[in-house]
Amino acid sequence: MPDQSDAKPGGISARKSQHIALCETDEVAFQRKTTLLEQVELVHDALPEMAVSEVDLSSEFCGKSLSAPLFIAAMTGGTDEAEAINRDLARVAEDFGIGFGFGSQRPLLTEGIEVGYRIRDVAPTALVLGNIGIVQARASTTSALAKMVSTCGADALVVHLNPAMEVIQPEGDQDFRGGLETLERLVRELDVPVVVKETGCGLSRSVGLRVADLGVEHVDTSGAGGTSWVGVETLRARGDQASLGERFWDWGIPTAASVAQLSGLGLKVCATGGVQNGLDAAKAIALGATCAGMARPLLQARAQGGLAALRSRVEQVLAELRLAHLLAGARTPDDLRGKPVVLGPTLRRWVVTDSPLDGRAL
């Protein structure tokens, strides 16, 4: 595919640049809704009978090993600025043995823009997730998507569902029919795992059941409470569209609630959406997530202090995640997923009665 990093002003690349600028600020946070991770408490174990060094955070997602159950979650691509950002993020993911996810690769798929997606020389072994919207996947052949995955060296393809964001986006899609049929085709025909992801509004149990029935094994919550992508597009919109976005700015299922909803469905869940630190990640894992992902806090760390600040923030998150395991008496993430949790009343209402979480919630 040709490199078209100087794509025309006002096109996809210009939109991606606007997204980066907005997400480096706190203007795009949810206004009132939270992740509900603050309504999760881990039960302290004063006799853990292990050393900190004995905590083993190693995990697996999409068939690849991780040194810890942590992802640098999907953010950006398609511009020169995104190229520099993604190379730094991927380099850090490689160094720490954690996962890395591209932002939407629509520029690569539809316009052949490779800039922003060239990271394998700095992250040769890291778990890398490709990314495309369900509407673009519906309109594309499986071979075109396979070529996109191959071009960027991704180990799996994330297909993101984002109807709320798209309807508010000035250039957004309005027709979301055929999503299940598209996912079924990709699961059947692609040679890499398919990960179903939201974009800031969370995944419900109903959606989890429907995609699991298609053979999907991995999902990413991208729940409410972190970055509001409806909010991002509202800030880009004008007139009635902006008013519509203001009304739906806080729409979505909180991240902790989405993890709880997906519990017990046999899916491997990556918890993203407002995860701020290692303790948040540990809470999500205790709720049943396989791993957790962070996006905007890491983008902001890099914006404020470059690669050194980004590396320092990841080190801190991993130290917090390790300590949370120790203090909960959990040697591994699998152990943590079996520990009792104390849930606040709002989150408790999201837990279904046949969920494995229901039996552990105090």
Can you walk me through this structure?
There is one protein chain. α1 crosses α9, α2 runs parallel beside α13 and α9 runs antiparallel to α10 (239-248). The model is unreliable at 1-9 (pLDDT under 50). This protein is 44% helix and 13% strand. The N and C termini lie far apart (54 Å). By secondary structure, it is an alpha/beta fold. It contains 16 helices and twelve strands. The strands form three sheets. Strands 4-5-6-7-8-9-10-11 form an eight-stranded parallel β-barrel, surrounded by six helices.
The top-level CATH class is Alpha Beta
Q: What oligomeric state do these chains adopt?
A: single chain
Number of strands: 12
| Low-confidence blocks of residues | 1-9
Helix-strand category = alpha/beta
Looking at the overall shape, the CATH architecture is Alpha-Beta Barrel
Brief overview:
By secondary structure, the chain is α/β, with parallel strands linked by helices. It is built from 16 helices and 12 strands.
SSE inventory with pairings:
Elements: H1 12-23, E1 40-42, E2 59-61, E3 64-66, E4 70-72, H2 80-96, E5 99-101, H3 106-111, E6 128-133, H4 134-139, H5 142-152, E7 156-161, H6 163-168, H7 179-189, E8 194-198, H8 205-213, E9 218-220, H9 229-236, H10 239-248, H11 255-262, E10 268-271, H12 278-287, E11 291-294, H13 296-327, H14 333-336, E12 341-343, H15 345-348, H16 356-360
Parallel strand pairs: 4-5, 4-11, 5-6, 6-7, 7-8, 8-9, 9-10, 10-11
Antiparallel strand pairs: 1-12, 2-3
